[in-house]
Amino acid sequence: MKITHIDVHRVVAPVRPGTVHSAAYHDTTDPSAWSGVDFDQQYKFIYEVHTNEGIVGLGESYRGIDERLVQANCKALIGQNAMKLNWRALPLPYNRAYDGFECAVLDLMGKKLGVPVYQLLGGACRDKVQVDFWCGRQSPEDLRTRMQQAVQLGYHGIKMKYCWGDPHRERAMAVEAVGGKDFAMIFDPNMRCHTAANAVKMAHDLDGFNVTCLEDPIPRWNIEGFRLLRQKIQIPIAFHTHLPYGQTLAEMFACVKQDAADFYNLSGSVAGVLQMAALAQAAGCPVWHGSEVDLGILEAAYLHTCAAMPNCTLPSDLFGELIRVDDFITQPHEFRRDKDGVYLRVPQGTGLGVELDRQSLARFTGDPL
Q: What is the mean pLDDT of the chain?
């Protein structure tokens, strides 16, 4: 099955108003602001990888990928026999442009063999993946509004972005006021508590609330700080390894070796995430799958990966359809609810199990490469 050509679509999928940050946190001059404007402005690429057998594999990039890297990857894959590729080590450099092409190759292989992608990963441990609600940095007042939607949809937990100095206790009070004492929350500072002392103070301020964990409260390279935090606070600590940001398996291994985290959030290539999950499993730690607020194709790959990880038992960060106005697939991933909260079904069709929505392409695409 020879790859003959690759169609590359440049798309921009805006976010739904009010889903990311409150207006007070839209300061684009502040490097810690995570401005929600970025989600509107940063483009993504959708790939259609064509073969001489008429089978087409779908892929999706992260946001803001360098077009030159995309072009180089296309050139490297054209002419390759997709069924003879080692999908765990494609003949491409590993950078932020890699994972979308891995996604497309797995889709091709699954379609050729007539099986879902999770069968290529060793088989499914589950057919549904629990997910939590999500928001950026929200004021307590805006968070109450978001929480009303979360409760109405059946969620049991929410993940929130945070910077040191934000009103964390007031946010926790807003979550509890709407969701009740059993509604779980994750605070994700993305290292912006800055110091272990600040993180300890934050944790003590949150005593009595149902906090699942603090995710990356301090810089990830401060493994000793993570280990000390576990000794000083009752709230569990999560360590996020995001391979496309230049983080490495070695960093996660150092954290595991020091027993410095309770949970692990994993992001990156399918092969990389499976490796990291196995490492966490050996240490007896549960994991969840991270995201970059993605579209339906990449989230399908995440669902297959979650299905194949035995220890992926924590709600994953799969919420793109809640945040973006379009997912670019014909049948959106369906959010369902059960006694444990909200979950997504793992696609059961061949390959990724999703189809590209060409009406969405026509509406949101830019100039093709």
A: 94
**What DSSP state is assigned to residue 192?**
T
pLDDT digits (tens, 9 = 90+) for 228-252: 999 999 999 999 999 999 999 999 9
Taking the C-alpha atoms of residue 232 and residue 318, their distance in angstroms, rounded to an integer, is 31
pLDDT of residue 320: 92
Query: Can you say how many angstroms the Cα of residue 269 is from the centroid of all Cα atoms in its chain?
Result: 11
pLDDT band at residue 39 under the 50/70/90 scheme? low
Q: pLDDT tier at 366 (50, 70, 90 boundaries)?
A: low
Listing from the earlier edge strand, what are the strands of the sheet with 211-215?
A: 133-135, 157-161, 184-188, 211-215, 237-242, 263-267, 287-289
Q: Is 25 helix (H, G, I), strand (E, B) or coil?
A: helix
Examine residue 122 and state whether it is found in any structural domain, yes or no: no
C-alpha span between 141 and 109 (Å, rounded) = 48
Q: How far apart, in whole angstroms, are the C-alpha atoms of residue 118 and residue 170?
A: 41
Are residues 24 and 154 located together in one domain of the fold? Answer: no
In a domain, 133, yes or no: yes
pTM above 0.90, yes or no: yes
| Percent of the chain clearing pLDDT 90 (strictly above) | 89
Do 97 and 156 belong to one domain?
Answer: no
Computed on alpha carbons and rounded to an integer, the radius of gyration of the chain in Å comes to 20
Least confident of 16-25, 201-210, 255-264: 16-25
Token pair recorded at residue 301: 């790959």
Which domain does 71 fall in, by range?
A: 3-115+355-364
Give the up-direction half-sphere exposure of residue 146: CA atoms within 13 A in the CB hemisphere: 29
Number of domains in the chain: 2
* C-alpha span between 261 and 240 (Å, rounded): 10
- 102 lies in some domain: yes
Is residue 121 a part of any domain in this protein?
Answer: no
76 lies in the same domain as 148: no
